[in-house]
Specification:
The structure is a single chain. This protein is of the alpha/beta class. The chain has helices at residues 33-48, 70-78, 81-99, 115-121, 149-168, 174-179, 189-204, 208-218, 220-241, 244-255; strands at 9-14, 17-22, 54-59, 104-108, 112-113, 125-129, 133-135, 172-173, 185-187. 52% of the residues lie in helices and 14% in strands. The strands form two sheets. A six-stranded mixed beta sheet has the order 1-2-3-4-6-9, sandwiched between helices. The termini are far apart.
């Protein structure tokens, strides 16, 4: 299968290793409408690709993904019906990531925020640059963390810690993320690529049926939780896109002032 050519995502192959890289480095790989639409297509290709056995998901440039592109977020706040299209895309992203039986390694080359964090945490093994930070600050701009955060975080670090980070929106440094079990390993930026290559070569050397089905077993609980958590989560996020507090958060960012959220 020839690699698809996409505007915001780069696919490249090295033997049986397929790399998917977010490719909006000038925007810190933040999600605009095009990237929302193209990531499901890239993941679907990776799932069905007969020429690869291991997938690396990473970002070109300094960031993994800064989450939602601010201009895109502004547009959704002004035109909430546009967000309804993203509900379909978000579900495809989450379901396809969980459904891929090949190991998916996240190369967290830089910050992963919001949806970027969710995508990273739905990968199987996460190696990060030691300068990277990860977090889900949906609540800080008046949005429900409904696009997969409540699915991914508790499964990695338990409900107690997940509630703290999802409710505060705090970004966590890579070393702390390793300590609490959120990610697997942190290393200096100039060593990250080598560490990922070594890991992938290890995975590629395994008997693939055993490897894939073992991975699939570990994701059965995530598959069970998707209809239980994602459906109400994304519905509440869609409602919060239409909420006055979200509009206030956007206005405060534009006007560079403190927010004035309602307290009723």
């Amino acid at each position: 299968m020839s690699l698809p050519e996409l505007e915001t995502i780069e696919l490249r192959r090295d033997g049986r290793l397929l790399t998917i890289a977010f490719n909006r480095p000038e925007a810190m790989n933040a999600f605009d409408k095009t990237m929302h639409d193209e990531l499901p297509a890239a993941l679907d290709f990776a799932r069905e690709d007969q020429a690869s056995d291991v997938i690396v998901l990473t970002g070109n440039g300094k960031a993994f993904s800064a989450g939602g592109d601010f201009t895109h977020i502004q547009n959704n706040a002004a035109n909430p019906a546009d967000f309804d299209h993203e509900i379909t895309m978000a579900r495809q992203i989450v379901e396809t990531l969980v459904d891929i039986e090949k190991p998916v390694v996240c190369g967290l080359n830089g910050h992963a925020v919001g949806l970027g964090a969710t995508i990273a945490l739905l990968c199987d093994i996460i190696y990060a640059s030691s300068h990277a930070k990860i977090g889900d600050p949906h609540v800080n701009i008046g949005l429900v963390a409904g696009d997969g955060g409540v699915l991914a975080w508790p499964q990695r670090i338990g409900l107690t810690r997940a509630k703290e980070y999802l409710l505060t929106g705090e970004l966590i440094g890579a070393e702390e993320a390793v300590t609490i079990g959120l990610i697997n390993r942190a290393c200096p930026a100039d060593e990250l690529e080598g560490a990922i290559t070594q890991l992938c070569n290890n995975l590629l050397s395994k008997p693939q049926f055993a490897l894939r089905k073992t991975k699939a077993l570990t994701n059965l609980e995530l598959k069970r939780l998707i209809p239980l958590l994602f459906e109400p989560g994304i519905a509440w996020e869609a409602e919060s896109v239409r909420d006055a507090d979200h509009r206030e958060a956007i206005a405060a960012l534009v006007e560079k002032r403190e927010t004035n959220f309602r307290r009723d």
